[in-house]
Write a structure and sequence with these properties.
Length: 239
């Protein structure tokens, strides 16, 4: 009987057409306990565990009633939202096609398109109380370019959250370490009572991804209700 073919330490040969990097990816997938757990639990992605871990720590989903899932495909996060907030209305968006999920409205379109915010709001039927973004730009292999492209998505997601969230709502987004994070944090701190960074255990240690968790949204005052001479942007950070 062969003892060398178990799951615990699979090696992938990269002969033939497979490139070294795709062989490394496949080997990591085969050896990754979260991939196996996701399959066993029926989640479409190992990313589902990142949201589970974030929710266990920050209590995001229990009271959520309207949730936006930016970068929904293949659907792991929305599956978790369905389980943990069964009464919530959920709308997701992705460039890629996403197989249907019971109880979730899925838009296949570019979140950066001008029409996207209105399409999301119309599908949701009211202000979200939770905006999730797990969006990541396709990497081109140039670290700074990849960073800027993903941070562009996150900043647009933050603007969307600030423009649409109900008072007290929350925003969770994947960010990449390095460079533009400070500007994003400053923006969030002006609009949320608490802003924290987290690296959930399911996030691979070698990756530069983090999650920013902003809670207790404070909507900007309408211009006609601001004290004279005060600018919303000039408010001090709360946290
Ligand atoms: C890491 S995956 C999301 C995984 C998902 N949270 C899950 O649990 O299954 C990132 C997704 O962001 C999407 N994405 C990237 N740029 C986008 C854009 N401009 N508009 C919409 N989706 C985008 C990608 O197509 C990809 O499916």
């Amino acid at each position: 009987m062969s003892r060398g073919s178990g799951d615990s330490d699979r090696r992938v040969r990269h002969a033939g057409k497979r490139t070294a990097s795709s062989a490394r990816w496949l080997e990591r997938q085969l050896n990754d306990p979260y991939v196996r757990q996701a399959r066993a639990a029926g989640y479409r992605s190992r990313a589902a565990f990142k949201l589970i871990e974030l929710d266990d720590r920050f209590r995001l989903l229990g009271s959520a009633r309207r949730v936006v899932d930016l970068g929904i495909a293949p659907g792991g996060w929305s599956q978790v939202v369905r389980q943990r907030a069964p009464g919530a209305r959920i709308v997701g968006i992705d460039l890629l096609e996403t197989a249907p999920i019971d109880g979730v409205t899925i838009l296949q379109m570019d979140f950066m398109a001008d029409a996207a915010p209105a399409a999301l709001e119309a599908a949701l039927g009211g202000a979200p109380d939770l905006v999730l973004s797990d969006m990541a730009a396709n990497t081109v292999g140039h670290k700074q370019t990849d960073h800027l492209r993903t941070m562009g998505l996150v900043e647009t997601a933050a603007d969307f959250a600030i423009a649409t969230l109900a008072p007290g709502g929350a925003f969770v987004a994947k960010v990449l370490a390095g460079g533009t994070d400070a500007a994003l944090l400053a923006l969030l701190k002006r609009h949320f009572a608490t802003v924290r960074h987290a690296k959930p255990p399911a996030s691979r240690k070698g990756s530069s991804e983090w999650y920013v968790v902003a809670q207790r949204f404070k909507p900007p005052l309408p211009a006609d209700q601001r004290p004279e001479g005060a600018s919303q942007e000039a408010e001090p950070a709360a946290d």
